[in-house]
Amino acid sequence: MKQATRSIITNKIQTSLHKRDNLFVLGMIQWFRRVFHRIKELNKKDRFVFNPNDFKNVKTLDVSWVPLLEWKPQTGDSHHIVILSDTLAKLKRKYPPCKSIIIIIFLGICFVFVVGIAGAIPVTVIFALGSIILFFSEPTLINYHVTFDRTRQKYFSNQTIKHSMGSMMLQEGSLNNVEAIQLLKKELSSRSINGIGYEQVTTYELNLVLKDKTRLNILNGGNIVEHGIQQGQQLAEFLRVPFWNVFDLTSDKQLEERQSQTIGYIIIVIILVCFSALILPNWKIFLEFLHVSLKELI
């Protein structure tokens, strides 16, 4: 329908010019289409490729923008930031880990089986057995949480992390040494839902950037990107530090370039409109011509 309308208006223009050379007018129509298409391309957010060198904040230049961790440990969907007061916040688990629940159920079944064979077991033995299980369990899967205390200007975890990536995760340090909160984008391969083949999954990594340019992981491997953005913004506001969000693809330099180029193309459009108003024989044809051209923006 749209193509047919353009063809009808073009035929009207050709007829109204009484068989004069209409290459100039048809050329202007093509210019309108190209300019409008270019303006739409300039305003697409996904056309920008993140480049830390484009940021005005020179502190981003010395910081690595390569993901710190691999897929594990996955804390992105299981943990969240809880603001307890103006000076106290915690990174804690939203719900008990499935792996731990399965282990506890399995041990409970084994325990019931042993009780059925050996008879009654003292309560002290039960508590001792439970304590041993919790002590040797992996802390990132049981009860890992981090406290951010602005009164003491410290952050600290509830226990030492025994995970192989533990040295890259939050354990203890000074909040005065925090430079910014960094949110990275990661494209990972994950097995598809039907179990056949793999598919690309967009996930995120939330890091704490220190003043010596080293990084410590806060959240990793979350499937809900909006959750990572929300948590990063919330923690950055609490700590009163910048939030370097890689998902906000329009950096300072790119935004300036987009604005200047858009203004330039708008000026070209105005010039083309003026020329078309002069070259076309009457206002009715001009308005029809302009109407068809402006549809390129829709």
Written description of the protein model:
This protein is an alpha+beta fold. The chain folds into two domains: 2-46 and 252-297; 50-245, no CATH class. It is 43% helix and 20% strand. The protein has helices at 2-16, 23-42, 98-118, 123-136, 139-142, 225-239, 252-279, 283-294; strands spanning 79-83, 88-93, 146-149, 154-157, 172-174, 178-191, 198-210, 215-222, 243-245. The chain has a five-stranded antiparallel β-sheet, covered by helices on one side. Helix 1 (2-16) packs antiparallel against helix 8 and helix 2 runs antiparallel to helix 7 (252-279). It is elongated. The two termini are 14 Å apart. The model is unreliable at 17-21 and 137-142 (pLDDT under 50).
What key phrases describe this protein's structure?
298 residues; 8 helices
List the helices and strands and how they pair.
Blueprint: H1 2-16, H2 23-42, E1 79-83, E2 88-93, H3 98-118, H4 123-136, H5 139-142, E3 146-149, E4 154-157, E5 172-174, E6 178-191, E7 198-210, E8 215-222, H6 225-239, E9 243-245, H7 252-279, H8 283-294
Helix pairs in contact: 1-8, 2-7
